[in-house]
Design a protein that fits this description.
Number of strands: 10
Largest sheet: 6 strands, mixed
CATH topology: Spore Coat Polysaccharide Biosynthesis Protein SpsA, Chain A
CATH superfamily: Spore Coat Polysaccharide Biosynthesis Protein SpsA, Chain A
CATH architecture: Alpha-Beta Complex
Number of helices: 6
Helix content: 25-40%
Shape: globular
Radius of gyration: 19 Å
Strand order of the largest sheet: 4-1-5-9-6-10
Order of helices and strands: EEEHEHHEHEEEEHEH
Distance between the termini: 44 Å
Strand content: 15-25%
Length: 232
């Protein structure tokens, strides 16, 4: 049995109510729920939330909300793995359901595609991994990144690469923030995701956008309009 779990707490300071805020005609969470259902990978799509309004909207979109997440797992400091582990334990203890694989899907992933979710599952099962997650390439070599110190001075993280050609530097990747397949045991033991027992499905950067600030939201809306062929 495969289960999708979509964490969607009610509190969001930088973008209030962002999980159900209207994004290009739909509640943001609708994109994640619809992709999960369309993938046909799951016996159940669950939304883990502490918020009654989010729960109601999620149910109308076809997701299950078998519980309201406790407050101690709904603050700014609670990690995703703890939320997923809580949902799995609930299924095991209260519903007598023991899922084989669990996919955490973020509620703010409007560019997620059902086909990518299916590919992730195929990789997880064929290679017998703990996790498979979505990722994308950095647009610029991270070895040439710099920071600004307290004295407002420029310091490179890797000064030895100042004169290294970009094509000679190893390519780097980052989490795409869309989905994370894992075995139930890996989630329950909260094993590290970015580790040797994991693999990544590499997505084109044109389909990846973090949505943490109002500026991120505006950029994502513009990207969505271009993808839909209605960009100016």
């Amino acid at each position: 049995m495969n289960i999708a779990i979509i964490p969607a707490r009610g509190g969001s300071k930088r973008i209030p109510r962002k999980n159900i805020k209207n994004f290009c005609g739909k509640a943001m969470i609708a994109y994640s729920i619809e992709a999960a259902i369309q993938s046909t990978c799951f016996d159940m799509v669950i939304v883990s939330t502490d918020d009654a309004e989010i729960a109601g909207i999620s149910k109308k979109l076809g997701a299950n909300v078998p519980f309201l997440r406790p407050s101690e797992l709904s603050d700014d400091h609670t990690g995703t793995q703890a939320v997923i582990a809580h949902a799995i334990r609930y299924l095991v203890n209260e519903k007598k359901i023991t899922p084989k694989n669990v996919c955490c899907i973020y509620a703010t992933a409007p560019f997620i595609q059902a086909g990518d979710i299916k590919k992730g599952l195929d990789i997880l099962e064929s290679e017998r991994l703990d996790y498979v997650f979505s990722a994308t390439r950095y647009a610029f070599p991270i070895q040439r990144a710099f920071h600004i110190n307290p004295e407002q001075q420029i310091e490179m993280f890797y000064p030895e690469h100042f004169n290294t050609r970009s094509q000679d530097l190893e390519e780097a990747y980052h989490d795409a923030g869309q989905f994370y397949w894992g075995t139930s045991l890996a989630w329950l033991e909260q094993r590290a995701i970015f580790a040797l027992h994991s693999s990544a499905l590499i997505l084109p950067s044109s389909r990846v956008q973090d949505i943490d600030t109002p500026e991120d939201w505006q950029r994502a809306e513009m990207m969505h309009k271009v993808m839909q062929g209605v960009g100016e």
